[in-house]
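for the writeup, i need someone to sanity check this before i put it in the appendix. the sequnce is what the collaborator sent (i think, or maybe the updated version? ugh). structure was predicted straight from it, no edits. if anything looks off just tell me and ill rerun, i have time this weekend
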Amino acid sequence: MMALLDFVVRLVTDVGRFLDVFVNDLILGAGDPLSAVLIVTGQAILLTAVGVFGYAAIGSLLNEVGITLPALGGRGRGE
């Protein structure tokens, strides 16, 4: 249980450290604006992928108990 708590604490502090590096080094520092755009774009792509995977995983779990979520692609099972 302690390893899980350490992991969550490290994850939260790394997010804070990422925001600090992003603001101080890329936006306010001597970094070029293209780097900031690339980082924001990469984070958006990553969050989209995690969101779609999470929706699919939760949808499959809910499908086991009889709750059906709408398909994202519109090509659900033919009934």
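The mean pLDDT is 82. The first helix runs from residue 2 to 27.
thx in advance!!
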